[in-house]
From TrEMBL, chain A:
Molecular function via GO: calcium ion binding
Gene that produces this protein: Chp2
SUPFAM superfamilies (UniProt xref): EF-hand
Family matches, as InterPro entries: Calcineurin_B_homologous (IPR051875), EF-hand-dom_pair (IPR011992), EF_Hand_1_Ca_BS (IPR018247), EF_hand_dom (IPR002048)
Domain EF-hand: 111-146, 152-187
Family named by the database record: Belongs to the calcineurin regulatory subunit family. CHP subfamily.
Highest taxon, organism lineage: Eukaryota
Lineage: Eukaryota, Metazoa, Chordata, Craniata, Vertebrata
Keyword Membrane belongs to the record: yes
Protein's cellular compartments: Cell membrane; Cytoplasm; Nucleus
UniProt protein name: Calcineurin B homologous protein 2
Gene Ontology CC terms, in alphabetical order: cytosol; nucleolus; nucleoplasm; plasma membrane
Protein keywords: Calcium, Cell membrane, Cytoplasm, Lipoprotein, Membrane, Metal-binding, Myristate, Nucleus, Phosphoprotein, Protein transport, Repeat, Transport
Major location category of this protein: membrane
Organism: Cricetulus griseus (Chinese hamster)
Automatic annotation (TrEMBL), chain B:
Protein name as annotated: Sodium/hydrogen exchanger
Domain Cation/H+ exchanger transmembrane: start-end pairs: 77-476
Pfam families: Na_H_Exchanger, NEXCaM_BD
Family that this chain belongs to: Belongs to the monovalent cation:proton antiporter 1 (CPA1) transporter (TC 2.A.36) family.
Length: 196, 797
């Protein structure tokens, strides 16, 4: 690994990315290699097609949405900083970080809130800050096999929204979403071990 | 419902057992009655009739001795198979205990029957039969089904752990037992150091893979699997090598004559035997891969070549007193990659199945022997020896695990946690290997052989039953799942979404490994090896195309009968319903939960899974198909809505399309897929141009990423020049129970063609391609790359 450190200089903006994402030098280097490997034509950024080349994503029911999450704000390209930023959400949470963090600084990308926000945007396609019933239905449709009839799906959707919705507007806002998942161990569920 | 199955299972099983018991009883009675003729040689049968001229021609004769050996062996194997059927009928059982338990029980049962009827068991197991016939299939199977990429990534740790671990265990147990034997009170004084060391070496042969099936659902990570697997793979070889060396020492008669020179020679021999075996294996592997390059016209002999060369490598190594086990392992590992691409689809399946079958038969026979030996008079019981053996086995395994991993953790990128190490320690279950080695000890050199056999049996039974059954709950407990209570529907949905998300992001991250060495090897492989060892252009035969057309018809039907009709998407465009606040009853909630649990798509697991005893057919290949069809539909829908494409002028360079799919051979597809093999690791393949969407079906418990079956040509046209390809390999990890079956990709219907004709002519920028995804186009490519091949959609096992 020692010989790799000289390559860190190749990463543009490496210090800025490090501060923003919290990755270690070694992890960033590995991510950069991965980025380069995905970027087959060496354009310096990734397009949707590059991500679609990852075969396993094609059989992931949420594959398209995951790919979309790499392209915020409708852009069609993602550079390494953006790539690392998305993946930073999945860094495992360090216990010590939470306590000694400087409250004035923005929350690290892999905090619980940010993880939840990331998951939230998978549901909320129109980015209005709420998961409407329709959006919930779409997600459910994606994740469920074809044997489930539409009526069943609709009633499940109704139930889902009903359970989380507190102010009765028929949609789940981000706070309601967070609240409904307060008992879940998000930090563990949305962390990938190798991304230390 | 579980109860009904249980009832069915038990009644079936009773029938089976009764049948089998009747058979064995019959055979034993027959034997008793023909005892008088038992002394005659088989061909005396022919002589008998002519020696007695007065005898009439009898209408009905019985000659059991002629068929005794094969008959009984067949009966045993059949019995074990029936037991396995019963075992798997009750679907919870494989989770509770490893299959070795079952085999032991069956063996004990047969042993009991044989003992009870005073039957003389046929001499199936002796040294040469074991080493020449029973052992190679077992080793070959474990070598063949080993996942190569993770193996080579972790090879340092695996060698360190397996090699040193076996040595530490062997010598540790041997020495400790020697000290115990020195204690006069136990009456073991006549067992000298060498014999103890030998016993240590044979008792340290573990078979941890047997327990893998029990805890695989606990999402154990890939590295851990590889360590366990790698250990199982190399452990047998090392034990046998040690065993042979120590036997050679023992044969030197005088213990006092052993000088340091001999010990050094022994060590050197150990290394030479090991490395020499591997070297032989690799050579034979390459030779057989090379030969399969030329067998396209006689594909029926391909399995034969594979098996014969592997076996030959074993025998050749054994001739030179090198390690045949390591040779056959190395041969299997080397050969697999190239052979897979060269052989035809059916040969590939045949090889897989036959291998499993052979190894299963061998193992069954050995376990039956174990059972027969258990229930018999050949025991010598010595409390001290046996108890201390048990104790030392555990202690030394713990010592070796924790110290060796402590050291290797310093050098690893991803160290093993204590929990992982504990699992490795606890999976030290003994199997057929140690018993066989004990059984085959020459009695002349080991007057206390019976003691060794008894001790081995006790250790095996103890570890298999006790550790095998408790490891499941233990691992699940260690996982510490916090959500014990029932989750609300909300939570279930979100949890599943997050699991999918996590799996997806993991895929984006790819496999992180030591790139440099791997890349170098891959380059070398590409440039030289593949050119020599892999077939070139494969001719199409009409039969093949016909077959493919038939498959396509099935694909069309499947889509047309509404797997995903556009009605499913109509919900997207429904106006918002006024939501009434209905109070749902608990039953409704329950039924919803039920629907969700049953129907939600499984998360793709990245961990490996391996079942030693079966090739389970994948049950949820439908899942992949559905997802893929759905995606295509969505893309088609979105394209229909006219989102984006400036389908302008026709592309001049567009290669001509077929309206019916030209299917090339599966091999090229597989080769494609192989060429895309890095995709499964990195998701991309540099220079892999054409559109190939080859989905891999993966046979359940095989860690083989195999097959390729259909390729869905998906293509986006680029500005005239390059065709970007969507090469995809569904890399589902090897899963057993959560079943990802053979993922057969679906072929697009020709309808798609007709529909898309109007869009065909487009050219677009890359950005737009990514926006609208892909199109269905069949593309004919140049040279050896990328033929679309199809594979049987509904591939039946």
């Amino acid at each position: 690994m020692g010989s790799r450190s000289s390559h860190a200089a190749l990463i543009p903006d490496v210090d800025h990315i490090r501060r923003e994402t919290g990755f270690s030098q070694a992890s960033l280097l590995r991510l950069y290699h991965r980025f380069q490997a995905l970027d087959r034509e060496e354009k310096g950024y990734l397009s949707r097609l590059d991500l679609q080349q990852i075969g396993a994503l094609a059989v992931n029911p949420l594959g398209d949405r995951i790919i979309d999450s790499f392209f915020p704000n409708g852009s069609q390209r993602v550079d390494f900083a953006g790539f690392a930023r998305v993946l930073a959400h999945f860094r495992p949470v360090d216990e010590e970080d939470a306590t000694i963090r400087d409250p004035k600084q923005p929350e690290p990308l892999n905090s619980r809130m940010n993880k939840l926000r990331f998951a939230f945007q998978l549901y909320d396609l129109d980015r209005d800050g709420k998961i409407s019933r329709n959006e919930m239905l779409q997600v459910l449709r994606l994740m469920v096999g074809v044997q489930v009839t539409d009526e069943q799906l609709e009633s499940i959707t109704d139930r889902t929204v009903q359970e989380a919705d507190e102010d009765g507007d028929g949609a789940v806002s981000f706070m309601e979403f967070t609240k409904s998942l307060e008992k879940m161990n998000i930090e563990q569920k949305m962390s990938i071990r190798i991304l230390k | 419902m579980g109860l009904a199955i249980h009832m069915a299972f038990s009644s079936w099983n009773w029938l089976l057992w009764l049948m089998v018991l009747a058979c064995s009883e019959a055979s034993s009675y027959v034997n008793e009655s023909s005892n008088s003729t038992a002394q005659q040689a088989p061909d005396a049968r022919f002589a008998a009739s002519s020696s007695d001229p007065d005898e009439r021609i009898s209408v009905f004769e019985l000659d059991y001795d002629y068929v005794q050996i094969p008959y009984e062996v067949t009966l045993w194997i059949l019995l074990a198979s029936l037991a396995k059927i019963g075992f798997h009928l009750y679907h919870k059982l494989p989770h509770l205990m490893p299959e070795s338990c079952l085999l032991l029980i069956v063996g004990a049962l047969v042993g009991g029957i044989i003992f009870g009827t005073h039957h003389k068991s046929p001499p199936v197991m002796d040294s040469s039969i074991y080493f020449l016939y029973l052992l190679p299939p077992i080793v070959l199977e474990s070598g063949y089904f080993m996942p190569t990429r993770p193996f080579f990534e972790n090879i340092g740790s695996i060698l360190w752990w397996a090699g040193l671990g076996a040595l530490i265990n062997a010598f540790g147990i041997g020495l400790s037992l020697y000290f115990i034997c020195q204690i006069k009170a136990f009456g073991l004084g006549d067992i000298n150091l060498l014999q103890n060391l030998l016993f240590g070496s044979l008792i340290s042969a573990v078979d941890p893979v047997a327990v893998l099936a029990v805890f695989e659902e606990a999402r154990v990570n890939e590295q851990l699997y590889m360590m366990i697997f790698g250990e199982a793979l190399l452990n047998d070889g090392i034990s046998v090598v040690l065993y042979n060396i120590l036997i050679a020492f023992t044969k030197m008669h005088k213990f006092e004559d052993i000088e340091p020179v001999d010990i050094l020679a022994g060590c050197a021999r150990f290394v030479i035997v090991g490395c020499g075996g591997v070297f032989f294996g690799i050579i034979f592997g390459f030779i057989s891969a090379f030969i399969t390059r030329f067998t396209q016209n006689i594909s029926a002999i391909e399995p034969l070549i594979v098996f014969m060369f592997s076996y030959l490598s074993y025998l050749a190594a054994e001739t030179l007193y090198l390690s045949g086990i390591l040779a056959i392992t190395a041969c299997a590992v080397t050969m697999k990659k190239y052979v897979e691409e060269n052989v035809s689809q059916t040969s590939y399946t045949t090889i897989k199945y036959f291998m499993k079958m052979l190894s299963s038969v061998s193992e069954t026979l050995i376990f039956i022997f174990m059972g027969v030996s258990t229930i018999g008079k050949n025991h010598e019981w010595n409390w001290a020896f046996i108890c201390f053996t048990l104790v030392f086995c555990q202690i030394w395994r713990a010592i070796s695990v924790f110290t060796l991993f402590y050291v290797s953790n310093q050098f690893r990128t991803f160290p093993f946690s204590i929990k992982d190490q504990f699992i490795i320690f606890y999976s030290g279950v003994r199997g057929a290997g140690s018993f066989s080695l004990a059984f085959l000890l020459p009695l002349s050199l080991f007057p206390r052989k019976k003691l060794f056999v008894t001790a081995t049996l006790v250790v095996t039974y103890f570890t298999v039953f006790f550790q095998g059954i408790t490891i499941g709950p233990l691992v699940r407990y260690l996982d510490v799942r916090k959500t014990n209570k029932k989750e609300s529907i909300n939570e279930e949905l979100h949890i599943r979404l997050m699991d999918h998300l996590k799996a997806g992001i993991e895929d984006v991250c790819g496999q992180w490994s030591h790139y440099q060495v791997r890349d170098k090897f891959k380059k070398f492989d590409h440039r030289y090896l593949r050119k020599i060892l892999i077939r070139r252009n494969l001719p199409k035969s009409s039969i093949v195309s016909l077959y493919k057309k038939l498959e396509m018809k099935q694909a069309i039907e499947m889509v047309e009968t509404g797997i995903l009709t556009s009605a499913a998407f109509s919900t997207l465009y429904q106006p918002e319903r006024i939501q009434g606040t209905k109070r749902l009853s608990p039953e409704d909630v329950e039924s919803m939960r039920d629907i969700l649990t049953r129907n939600m798509y499984q998360v793709r697991q990245r961990t490996l899974s391996y079942n030693k005893y079966s090739l389970k057919p994948q049950t949820s290949e439908k899942q992949a198909k559905e997802i893929l069809i759905r995606r295509q539909n969505t893309l088609r829908e979105s394209m229909r809505k006219g989102q984006s494409l400036p389908w302008g002028k026709p592309t001049g360079t567009k290669n001509f399309r077929y309206l019916s799919f030209p299917y090339s051979n599966p091999q090229s597809a597989r080769r494609e897929a192989r060429a895309a093999e890095p995709t499964d690791d990195d998701g991309i393949h540099p220079g892999f141009q054409p559109l190939m969407f080859s989905a891999h079906s993966r046979a359940g418990s095989l860690q083989e990423r195999r097959q390729t079956q259909a390729m869905i040509p998906m293509k986006s046209l680029h500005r005239g020049e390059k065709a970007l390809s969507f090469s995809y390999r569904s890399n589902t990890s090897w899963e057993d129970h959560a079943g990802w079956g053979r993922r057969d990709a679906i072929r697009p219907k020709p309808l798609f063609y007709a529909v898309d004709e109007e869009y065909e002519s487009g050219e677009q920028t890359e950005e737009e391609i990514s926006a609208t995804g892909t199109r269905w186009i069949a593309e004919h490519r140049r040279s050896r790359e990328h033929y679309k091949s199809h594979s049987p959609l509904l591939h039946r096992k």
